[in-house]
Fold this sequence. Notes:
Layout: H1 4-23, H2 29-36, H3 40-61, H4 65-68, H5 70-89, H6 94-122, H7 126-154, H8 161-176, H9 194-197, H10 209-240, H11 246-267, H12 272-296, H13 299-327, H14 333-362, H15 364-406
Helix pairs in contact: 1-6, 1-7, 1-8, 3-6, 3-14, 5-6, 5-8, 6-7, 6-14, 7-11, 7-13, 10-11, 10-12, 10-13, 10-14, 10-15, 11-13, 12-13, 12-15, 14-15
Amino acid sequence: MLSRPVSFVVAGTFGAAILTAASAPSPLYPVYQRLWGLSAFALTVVFAVYVVALLASLLTVGSLSDRIGRRPVASAALALLALGMVLFARAGGAGDLVLARVVQGIAVGAAAGTGTAMIMDSAPDRRTGSVVSSAVPAVGIALGAVLAGTLVEFAPLPRQLVFWVLAAAYLVLAVLVWFVHEPVRPASGERPPLWRALLPSAGLPAETRPAFLALVPTLVATWALSGLYLSLGSSIIGSVLGVRSHFVVGGVLGVFFVSGAIGTAVSVALPPRPQQWSGNAALALGVLVTVGALVERSTPLYVVGSVVAGLGFGAAFRFAVHALGEAAPAGARGQVFASMYVVSYVAFSVPALAAGLAVGRFGLEPTVVVYGALDVALVLVALVVGAVRTRRAERATALRPCATLDA
């Protein structure tokens, strides 16, 4: 059995690795489009089926690790993810891509809440756990985009090598997660039957619901933007900005997610209230700069906008994960974080699918401009909701001493 510090490292690696696969195909989409004559809508469908499978998995087995333990769920998800990578490596058309994405979505759905809960379980404290668990999605996505772009541009077997490398890594990690630290779980007699836990559901403990609902606008704004980057980002960089190198495309996509990880770490130094508003404000500013870069056809300005938006993404998402970690009972963390990812991935996929449909009718640039405006509007809603919730909490705190004196 691994020590708790080593378990924390393995859990963090697991959390990042499951989302490395999510971005690995992104730099290859233009290649698939040219090779097989796929439309922008077809690529969006390939993106969307992944999220449909992921949501179905989250709603059924997303909280299973609360019942049977983190290790078996994590190991099985990694083995299934390795199979998805093999299917990608052997893909010969759009149908094969759809199958690979479905397998990948099921695996990531099973692993998403489990990975976050595993990190929080093995972290030395809740603050460190929230930092790492909110940073690893951005780190994993950035790694996948940069790794794929580099291997496609410079390595042999440009359409296959990245997937073979990831498949091997997932199999190794599937063995390692069997040895991580596991929290003690209640006896099975204290809980409903296992089959009931597998029924599609997305519940929350009563004490967690107010915090969760207040954080929904933040979750939607952050993940809707990341969905745009992963579904249409390579087309934006290639078609609008005129970048032809797969390595550069992967690097530009990775900039947003790398800065997201940095934003997560930097936000820890801020008090809770500045964490929330500064993250959302940076997200809105970055989106506006990015849209301006498209209008001006400026790749450097697009990179600057991506950096600022990424910093906001990291800070805002870290605040949400930390708040939910504080509000969630230890025995229900898998359920709470699975519900968080249900909301996140709906926001990740539905707007991106709508954007893919809109591109065919209105064009890429107008679609991205409207998408950006809607995301900024969501950020403003998140700021208002956060301010109202903070004011209510302060009012409740101020009244509590008075109530004590009266008693």
